[in-house]
Specification:
The protein is of the alpha+beta class. It contains 7 helices and 6 strands. The chain starts with 12 loop residues before the first helix and ends in a 5-residue tail after the last helix.
Length: 181
């Protein structure tokens, strides 16, 4: 999703990547989905964002293939929640890099305003965006946790945000046929 112009056809890989990931709201939406917070109202409340801004960012991330919609029953009607696709999961090192850079270079406004990237396999914090600095294993949504002190006392596993492969496929087929809710 472009900020000021469409960079999707640029010769520069960084420009094309920023076309999708360069908007702060889009990155924060991805953060919420990685935390397992994929429902519209929950994201809206957590982010303190206007409906129109959140709707636009979610649509852009779905169009770019990073998120897919998955139906759920809220007890009264079927609603949609947003889950990561494999393409969305591949954005994890980008989000990790932003967190690690901010922790290293930007002052936190309080002792609780920290977030750490943890390799669940060995239980250690890492200072690398794509591999564990303690054991060397590649970081993925399945083996990575984020520990945000403002959210919870314990690290949150990121694998909970992933779409089941058959669910995503069915949803994409329904969207292409115009039958998605």
């Amino acid at each position: 999703m472009a900020l000021r112009s469409d960079w999707s056809q640029r010769n520069c890989s960084m420009a094309r990547g920023l076309d999708v990931l360069g908007d702060p709201w889009s990155m924060l939406v991805l953060r919420e989905v990685f935390f397992g917070n994929g429902r519209f109202e929950a994201m809206k409340n957590r982010l303190s964002v206007a409906d129109s801004v959140l709707t636009k960012r979610l649509a852009g991330l779905v169009d770019a293939g990073l998120l897919t919609r998955q139906p759920y029953d809220d007890g009264g009607r079927t609603r949609q929640e947003y889950v990561l696709t494999a393409k969305g999961e591949d954005a994890l090192p980008v989000l990790n890099a932003v967190v690690l850079w901010a922790e290293k270079h930007l002052a936190a406004p309080s002792d609780q305003a920290h977030m750490f990237v943890i390799h669940s396999g060995c239980g250690q914090r890492t200072s690398s965006a794509d591999s564990c600095t303690a054991c060397g294993e590649r970081l993925t949504a399945e083996n990575t946790s984020w520990h945000s002190l403002t959210r919870t006392a314990d690290p949150v596993p990121l694998a909970t945000a992933r779409a089941a492969p058959q669910t995503a496929t069915k949803q994409n087929a329904a969207e292409q046929n115009g039958t998605a809710a």
